[in-house]
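Work Package 4 report. The design task specified in the project plan requires that, given a folded chain encoded as structure tokens, an amino acid be chosen for each position. We show below one input record used in the internal validation round.
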């Protein structure tokens, strides 16, 4: 084999290898059965729990709209999900109730961290992720999402019920800002 052919062969082999390694690998999603399910994600080196209402017809083959739920002080993810589930209708989005999320759980910054980790567990429609916080969970979402321009852009809407803004002022409105609704504030 001539030197020219050898160089051409090596270049072609390298190009094929590079192209094959550049192909995105298909994501292997965990399977979820419909109904109320418990799970965990790893945040800051600790397993953090959540309880999810996985809707009928849920499949990881498509991106799903989702609502992150933050319970009030002293609450629990499963209990809050049970209350919200009764109002979710016949075709709810994926509802994910966070365990560590209220204002007294040393949960500063957890809502955005949960969201990032949940993206590996559920095929989320990143343009249709919402957050609902009640009481202490609403305070936590105010601090962690509304007052954090980067985190705020990850949500299509934020609803805070039975709480008020805390000590922080929101940042300048980001280019992609969600609707923010206060109920009973």
């Amino acid at each position: 084999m001539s030197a020219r052919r050898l160089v051409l062969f090596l270049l072609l082999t390298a190009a094929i290898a590079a192209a094959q390694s550049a192909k995105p690998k298909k994501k292997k999603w965990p399977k979820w059965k419909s109904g109320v399910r418990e799970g965990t994600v790893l945040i800051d080196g600790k397993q953090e729990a959540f309880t999810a209402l996985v809707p009928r017809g849920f499949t990881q083959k498509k991106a799903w709209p989702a609502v992150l739920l933050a319970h009030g002080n002293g609450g629990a993810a499963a209990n809050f999900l049970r209350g919200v589930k009764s109002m979710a209708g016949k075709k709810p989005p994926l509802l994910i109730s966070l365990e560590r999320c209220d204002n007294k759980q040393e949960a500063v910054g957890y809502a955005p961290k949960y969201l990032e980790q949940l993206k590996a567990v559920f095929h989320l429609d990143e343009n249709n992720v919402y957050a609902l916080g009640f009481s202490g969970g609403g305070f936590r979402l105010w601090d962690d999402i509304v007052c954090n321009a980067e985190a705020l852009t990850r949500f299509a809407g934020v609803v805070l019920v039975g709480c008020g803004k805390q000590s922080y002022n929101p940042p300048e409105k980001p280019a992609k800002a969600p609707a923010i609704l206060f109920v009973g504030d």
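The beta strands are 35-43, 46-54, 64-70, 94-98, 124-134, 157-161, 179-183. Validation will be extended to a larger panel in the next phase.
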